[in-house]
């Protein structure tokens, strides 16, 4: 059934190319589980670097295999569950198969010579690829160098398309990062959005963040709290 979503191409591409060729044709982050109408054929796969979460579980009684994007979904259902490894796929016939190996892990790999122009062109190509989307696109500004460089490349590309670039920043009042992000947004000429949260708001959201993050690791929780507010800010703007 046609949907208008870019995800619609996944199923026919898998059927036409098979697992390895299909996955190597994908560019970006993903965690997918595909099946045919009767469930005889199943493909589960995770992106090259494991950016998107995916877990695999087993039940001993019937030998069933389960997949979920959150570990909590498998607790109480599966007898065992673990993280689905990055750069792998799973089928009923083959089990787990590694489909992606970074080129720097290959025997005899020799790094290319340092050439700033190569890095710049690779970054420009990567940014342009990420602008291919069937939904709105925005840029998260941290106030640092990385997001500023991406914005410098992204802004003229958006203008070429006749679209306005929206940027988003979160932080606490008087944060130097928020001030820097405002300057970057002004330089880029973006429609800038920000949300300033207090320490009290941050503490109040710890339980929610731990629930979604599925870890108590202090550094991860601390960094995830601002991202929680950032996700809400972006969502509020569609």
How would you portray this structure in words?
This protein has 238 residues and is of the alpha+beta class. The chain contains eight helices and ten strands. The strands form three sheets. The chain has a four-stranded antiparallel β-sheet. A hairpin with a 6-residue loop joins strand 3 and strand 4 (65-68). Helix 3 (116-130) packs across helix 4 and helix 7 packs across helix 8. The protein is globular. One of its GO terms (biological process) is asparagine biosynthetic process.
Q: Which regions contain 5 or more consecutive residues with pLDDT less than 50?
A: none
Structural class assignment: alpha+beta
How do the SSEs run, as a string of H and E? Answer: HHEEEEEEEHEHEHEHHH
The tally of helices reads 8
Question: What would CATH call the class of the largest domain?
Answer: Alpha Beta
Mean pLDDT: 93
CATH structural architecture of the largest domain: 3-Layer(aba) Sandwich
What percentage of residues falls in helices of 4 or more residues?
25-40%
From the N-terminal CA to the C-terminal CA, the straight-line distance is: 25 Å
In this structure, how is the largest beta sheet organized? 4 strands, antiparallel
Write out the CATH superfamily name of the largest domain.
HUPs
- Principal-axes shape call: globular
The tally of domains stands at 2
Q: Kindly report the spatial arrangement of strands forming the biggest sheet.
A: 1-2-6-7
Number of strands: 10
**Strand content range:** 15-25%
Assign the CATH topology of the largest domain. Answer: Rossmann fold
Rg, Å, rounded: 21 Å
